[in-house]
Amino acid sequence: xxxxxxxxxxxxAYTRACLQSLREQTTSNFRVIVVDDGSTDxxxxxxxxxxxxxxxxxxxxxxxxxxxVNVGIRRALERGxxxxxxxxxxxxxxxxxxxxxxxxxxxxxxALLGALEQDANTHEPIYGGExxxxxxxRRRELLRELxxxxxxxxxxxxxxxxxxxxxxxxxxxxxGLFDEARLPHYLxxxxxxxxxxxxxxxxxxxxxxxxxxxPDESGQEQTRRQRSVKGYYEHLFGIRGGGNLRNFTHFTLKxxxxxxxxxxxLNGYARRLVGYFLHK
Length: 280
Prior knowledge:
By secondary structure, this protein is α/β, with parallel strands linked by helices. The protein has helices at 12-23, 43-50, 64-78, 97-107, 142-145, 169-175, 188-198, 219-225, 229-237, 245-255, 261-278; strands at residues 2-8, 30-37, 55-59, 83-86, 91-93, 112-119, 125-127, 130-133, 138-141, 154-156, 165-168, 203-213. This is Glycosyltransferase 2-like domain-containing protein.
């Protein structure tokens, strides 16, 4: 059985819409666990009343993304899950999303799978996975390389984000859970899928499964939207900072080939120090 784990903190309207999209799936062969980390907008009570099929676990507000999904994964495994999917609450699943993820998961039972992301407002594809080069520190975005005819089925990538990430249970047995001690929020998903790939588990984007996302609602975008000294500090050092130097250092030391660590760190630090001001 597939268990879908959704960590949330406030933003009840997004959570409602996400859960409603899961209700409208063409398959019902899954269960949903929401980890409500200290919401103050009545999330837990609303879900108990409106989505009785959803199991709600609660935190004290200090779990952040990584520890939140780990709480849900532990419960899913206790309940006998053979696959777990992490999903953000600010996404909408296309009606065939789960069915198409299960279709390919049944054919590649050891693979970690992500989905093609589309802008929720325009339905234009915006993320289809990437291949990362540690030497140049550049990302090859598959959406820019694949023809429309090629944008179907599975495509191998270096890592995957945690929004719509399907993980077979055997991966947890081999790798463990997400690294909540060193990567409490950002990069934990990229780190986990990179580690799993190095352990021999394939990592693919599934172009047949579609998620609708809101790119401007990510914590990184909100921090950068109004540039300021405080925002710059949060960008580099805050738990929700997309350029967090500590998180990047941990990620690089864990995943970069050792001979390339010095150049990759220098390149990455430079990009993070100046990227906040260059990003539009």
